[in-house]
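=== Structure Prediction Worksheet ===
Name of assembly: unnamed complex
Input type: mixed (protein and possibly other molecules)
Chain count: two
Listed entries:
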Amino acid sequence: MSGVVINEVRRGFYLDSVALMRLSRVIAERAGVEEAALMMGTPTNKRIMADAGLLVVAGQAAEGGDLVIGIRADSQARANEVLQEALSELDKPAGHGGAAPQWRPRSTRAALKQVPDSNLALISVPGDFAAAEARKALRRGLHVMMFSDNVSLAAEVALKHEARALGRLVMGPDCGTAIINGVPLAFANAVPRGPIGLIGASGTGLQEVSCLIAQGGGGISHAIGVGGRDLKEEVGGITTLMALDALDADPGTKHIVLISKPPAAGVAARILERIGASAKSFTICFIGASDLALPVNARLADTLKAAAEDALGGVGLGTGFDPAARTGRPTPERDAVWGLFTGGTLCAEAQVIFRAAGQSVGSNAPVPGALPLDRAATGHRLIDLGADEFTHGRPHPMIDPSVRDDVLVEALASSRVGVILLDVVIGFGAHADPAGHLAHVLTAHRRPDDVRVIASVTGTDGDPQGRTAQAAKLEAAGVMVAPSNADAATLALACLGCFPVRDPTSRSA
Amino acid sequence: MSDEINETLLNADLKVVNLGLESFALELTQQGVEVVHVDWTPPAGGDPALAELLSKLGV
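=== Predicted Assembly ===
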């Protein structure tokens, strides 16, 4: 790495991570700046800054309550100028919409004096402090949703054991989506109430299934996120099993859908045993899993779409959509699909569909049967842009869709890429106009006539962005919009003349 | 235990204490959910290990 690196530390200065990442982006885009980051000086953040070549001696002395500014620029003078700009941005008073600043509690304990019957702590503080805040909330009788990531596995295990003993639910860490009693929390969508309960280790999996159920005329009782590691052997599925007990006892829930990557074998056995003891019916969608011995009251779904269809009692979704009728083949040398996903489970679902069509596929987050990218130099590439290598120190692409821009432009310029496959995830928490951003990038760059761009929109018309409006913006930019992520993947294959050997988007009984 | 979770969370009016991203609190408020946003700053002088210890001691 070349350039001059400078650090400035502001002692005892806190801003939330999204505000800091937004300011980081603004500063990093200034002329003469190679890279920039503003982060709280926690041990995790200092490691990220060091890896990015943005930490020097001054920054190393920062502590978790301090803000660190790191700038790498082409000259000392330029670095200093941009630093002054960053500092003046930080000194701007926070907006209160013209109203007088409101008194705010400084702790969970003080918040509970204000509203004593609060029942949920929603925690998105830096990961190094999240477990401590969760523990304080649990001991004051609150259930917890932890959006924070970078929480150690040991801390997660300890918290969940304590929560279970207290009769409280810990959703997370790294839990992005939940709908509790009709209220979407963090990244979730406006879906109708209904008798289908969801439990998911995957945020975008919960979002896609809940939205497809809404599309099919159904509704959701509750959607309980458990965090991406709950079904690992070390955690033992504690939150999943507690959520199963709760939804099993909930009179408003008639059918339960479980969504996850394949669990550890021992955990899967305990979960399936618990399901077998229930009088309710279940749909199991362990994306990429096979050969599960299911109890009689459970059915397996290979894809998120199949899970939604099964939960709806076998209703076919997107039946008016015919991939074969919408294809237009790229020239033969353009034989690769690049899928650029903001949703990790949407990326996994597309891989499952490609594998079912007999296609070799490489991914940075490969499902069983897919290849890691370094072993799949050519051919189809399905990328999870929410993975750590893309989001260290940057907002998730569902918050900041520009994370996808560089690789999208690379795909448009490639002579091998015939189809670009995209997801657009809307709803609460997400960017205000992801389709508008995508459309802008697509129209600003030359696209060869025979390159197809295919997308789906995960969301509903009740969401702030509106699913229909988002789809219209994509279509106006020449994007083919499919009714679901699974249908988009199937259409991508159809454009290359490939069709699934068996239809993985339909129910497997 | 499942009855307790149903009574105190799933089938109760949601009342949220929000720590961290203020946008989550704003969106919940816009949906009519009662939410208290905590003016959070890193506790224990910004030392995660000390914060962890204090939380275990109930401080």
